[in-house]
Amino acid sequence: xxxxxxxxxxAVTFATPxxxxxxKYQMDCNLGKGTTQTxxxxxxxxxxxxxxxxxRVSVLDMxxxxxxxxxxxxxxxxxxxGVTTDDRTNALIQADASPVNKLFIVSxxxxxxxxxxxxxxxxxxxxDDCGGKTRIWxxxxxxxxxxxxxxxYHYDLFTPPVVFEMDGEKLIDATPKCREYFDKQIESLxxxxxxxxxxxxxxxxxxxxxxxxxxxxxxxxxxxCYLYTNREIEARTVLQQMWPSDDAxxxxxxxxxxxxxxxxxxxxxxx
Length: 271
What we know:
Helices cover 27% and strands 31% of the residues. It is built from six helices and 14 strands. Strands 1-11-12-13-14 form a five-stranded antiparallel beta sheet, with no helix packed on it. The chain has a five-stranded antiparallel beta sheet with strand order 2-7-8-9-10, with no helix packed on it. Strand 7 and strand 8 form a beta hairpin. Helix 4 (209-227) runs antiparallel to helix 5.
């Protein structure tokens, strides 16, 4: 069953309080509802048309010839400057093709074409509070429904955020560029992890399931912030110091395996 993209985006919002500056998609369509929406840029026209319970996007050049077309049950579209290192104008088209969401990056300029397609089990959103540049954000779908997260409050909300941008034809992992942003998350999470909570979690002495899930989620989130900003030593240290000692090595190896097969496996690969 197709899920509204608004629900997909809610599900991946990073659970730590922060001043996230999300950039809104200008057009959205869910299950073919609503009316035709249009955005124009650089002599290109981007149309999002609902019909028969479906949503269809068309990117047309100045002669109304199609550059890109796609249809799905739910779609969101952003047209503007950003997500590329040279700040070209693009159309970013998100399609809920459940169970895999797709984000199409279409260049609107000379040689207009589909630059890349990113696929993930989570949705994508745009955010500009990492150095003031609009980038593509998501959460690594490899961890969705992972058994190590099942008793985290809100189920799998504490999955690792990932940040992307385009450099020419290449998809770049920009998460390390946002280290300052993630360091603020780490600081906030650590402030809500008293030493007594860590000690009781490590020795399985937190009786309340809700509180145990909170503590576990904060530990995982700190570890993910380090790991996905290319600080593996710090990430592993978090597990060694905060996770039950008889399970830390197993969890670390499991996390590395999932990460290698996750959304980052699409980085720097062609169409």
